[in-house]
UniProtKB/TrEMBL annotation:
Keywords: ATP-binding, DNA damage, DNA recombination, DNA repair, DNA-binding, Nucleotide-binding, Nucleus. Its main location: nucleus. SUPFAM superfamilies: P-loop containing nucleoside triphosphate hydrolases (SSF52540). GO terms for cellular component: Rad51C-XRCC3 complex; replication fork. Residues 78-259 form the RecA family profile domain. Pfam families: HHH_XRCC3_RpoA (PF26169), Rad51 (PF08423). This is RecA family profile 1 domain-containing protein. It is found in: Nucleus. GO terms for biological process: double-strand break repair via synthesis-dependent strand annealing; resolution of mitotic recombination intermediates; t-circle formation; telomere maintenance via recombination. The keyword Heme does not apply. GO terms for molecular function: ATP binding; ATP-dependent DNA damage sensor activity; four-way junction DNA binding.
Length: 341
């Protein structure tokens, strides 16, 4: 991509050429202050330059060199999947998470949603022949702090989880350097993150997976029951932004969601049925999701060596390409694995 493709004032273009900045993407890797020093342009000119460069990169997202080398660009189409890192779970999902569209993972607290999301952030960094995206991940936290200790444990245990990958390749990957953590305390900061920082990371090719944990937290805390119309409008804006990012950059988007109890008065009780839950945020959000998965924590316990884990079940609630099936799983030191029954 050359400078002639940018719609910029000739004066700005001339300053960029004098500074010997060779490519549009190179501009996005230089800080604003350094650009001012190199070009002699004003703050306003630098803002115009960065905006134009980011827009151009969004129109022409980078393709990993490995894909070009192996002639696998077509794999980034609708049939491409991001592996979960477990053969049984990948079998349930017909290869893993689809690259296009929004995938929702809902479940009660402690069901293993965040565990699976962290695992996907590591899986994304593997080359495509091992089910990865050959790129990093951006993880947006909206309620709890990022579980850095658990991530470090998962990184140490990767050779155990990914026995299909050569140990030399695993040791060469700097996993923690390629997970970009963002915190959004309210909807405004979330929208700024999704409209400014995340597109830059995607445009630079630094990430290829977007995780939001969780989508329900902010929408539940900022709106009362009477504000349902405004909440739905904000939900549509949020989901539209996610879909745009997914389509523009061929990026899988994973949204963690909470659940709400389904009430029933058939037995004369006004209380919730503990095993009967549904994903939060209602139909307004459900209609924006392409794949809906649910993680349930069961009453049984499974044991493996000196480790034990509550049994989980990953279920496909709906998806255009998947039947409604489920797979038992457990959370071990190395991550989430399917359990054969």
């Amino acid at each position: 991509m050359n400078w002639d493709q940018l719609e910029l004032d000739p004066r700005i273009l001339a300053a960029v050429r004098r500074a010997k900045l060779k490519s549009v993407r190179e501009v996005l890797c230089v800080s604003g202050l350094d650009l001012q020093r190199l070009t002699g342009l004003s703050c306003s000119d630098i803002r115009q330059l960065l905006t134009a460069a980011a827009t151009a990169c969004r129109r022409h997202p980078p393709i990993p060199a490995l894909l070009l080398h192996r002639g696998e660009c077509c794999r980034l189409g609708s049939g491409f999947r991001l592996s979960v890192g477990c053969p049984l779970l990948d079998k349930l999902l017909r290869g893993g998470l689809p690259v296009g569209g929004i995938t929702e993972l809902s479940g009660e607290s402690g069901s293993g949603k965040t565990q699976l999301a962290l695992q996907l952030c590591l899986c994304a960094q593997y080359p495509t022949q091992y089910g990865g995206l050959n790129s990093g991940a951006v993880y947006i936290c909206t309620e709890d702090s990022f579980p850095i200790r658990r991530l470090q444990q998962l990184i140490r245990e990767q050779p155990c989880l990914r026995s299909d990958v050569p140990p030399s390749l695993i040791s060469s990957l700097q996993f923690s350097d390629h997970i970009y953590i963002e915190h959004a305390a309210d909807l405004d900061s979330l929208q700024v993150c999704l409209s400014r920082r995340v597109p830059l990371l995607l445009a630079r090719g630094l990430v290829q997976l977007l995780v939001v944990d969780s989508v329900a937290a902010l929408f539940r805390s900022e709106f009362q029951a009477a504000d349902w119309l405004e909440r739905n409008k904000q939900l549509l804006t949020f989901s539209s932004t996610l879909r745009h990012l997914s389509q523009e950059f061929t990026t899988p988007v994973l949204c963690i969601n909470q659940v709400t109890n389904v009430f029933s008065g058939s037995d004369g009780s006004l209380g919730p049925l503990p095993s009967n839950v549904t994903p939060a945020l209602g139909l307004a959000w459900a209609n924006q999701v392409m794949v809906r998965l649910m993680m349930r924590r069961l009453q049984e316990t499974v044991v493996r060596g000196e480790q034990s884990s509550a049994l989980r079940r990953l279920e496909v609630v709906f998806a255009p390409h998947l039947p409604r099936e489920g797979q038992d799983a457990a959370v071990w030191r190395e991550g989430v694995r399917g359990v054969s029954t």
